[in-house]
Amino acid sequence: MTRLAARALLAVVFWPSLFFFWFLGPFVFFLLSTTSSEVCARLETRDEFLAAANGAIPMLAVQNVIYAVPVLCLVLWDRLSPEAERARHIVTCVKLFAVAVVIGGLWEYGSSLVCDGHGQAFFSPLWQMTSYLPIVSLVINVPLYVLAFSLGRAFSTREEVAEDEASPGA
Fold first, then answer.
1. What is the pTM of this model?
2. How many angstroms from the chain centroid is the CA of residue 20?
3. How many domains does the chain fold into?
4. Does residue 97 form part of some domain?
5. Between 69 and 33, whose confidence is greater?
């Protein structure tokens, strides 16, 4: 019974965190972590731009720790009821999450550096290439979201219900 209670508690943490952090959170954190157009017009030197971009790093770190909550729930669920097939999917989920974190961080940091109100090229044009990273991020995040959702559904479904659905006589 303790195992079932722990699984239920993980479900109570997993589903809201998946919805609020993964589906709504990126919009909020993107607005908070990048330099706004109001600040952009006041940035005139390379040092000011770099300071603004580096100021986003703590927000990016907090964002990634918060985003890790659903993945951590999946890992804990697997520890409570290990299954080889699910464990492989969780490893894939963790790898996709790590790649998404790196790409998301580069995108948000790069967009802070690209934002200049005066059209001045303070930094390498390579940072302007970060504007394409949302496409790469989408390609990685869609399978990650689908995999996390399906794993969460599998873990938060009681075994008795899953067995009843699988039996032909029910």
1. 0.76
2. 11
3. 1
4. yes
5. 69
